[in-house]
Specification:
Helix content is about 80%, strand content about 0%. By secondary structure, it is mostly helical. The longest helix is centred in the last third of the chain and has 26 residues.
Length: about 120
Amino acid sequence: MLEGLLALLVFQLVGEGLARLLHLPIPGPVLGLLGLFAVLRARPHWIERLRPTAEALHSHLALMFVPAGVGVVMFLPRLRAEWLPIVVALLVSTSVGLVVTAWVAHRLAPESAQEDES
C-alpha cells in the first residue's frame, strides 16, 4: 500500500511541478491524474499494484468532506447574512452549466440522431 501511495503522490508532485513550471491554468493534481491515467493505459498491470491503495482511500472518502463541513460551520454567520446572493449564484451557475452542457451535447450529437428528433 505504501508503494501505491508513493506513486499517487509522485504523480501529483509531477503534475504540480508542470503546472507551475509551464504556468498552466490547470491545477497540478489534475495534470498528475492525467499522467497517471496515461501510464495506467500504457501499463495496465500497474492497476493491480495500485488497487489496495485506491480501495483504502475509497473506504475513507467520507473523511474528505470534514474540512468542507468545518468551513461551513466556521462561516455560518456570514452564510446567514448573505444567503440570498449565494442561493442566486448557485441557481444561476447551475442553470447556465446545464444549458451550456445541453447545447454542446446537441451540437456534438451525430446528425442522424438530430434528424430522428425532428
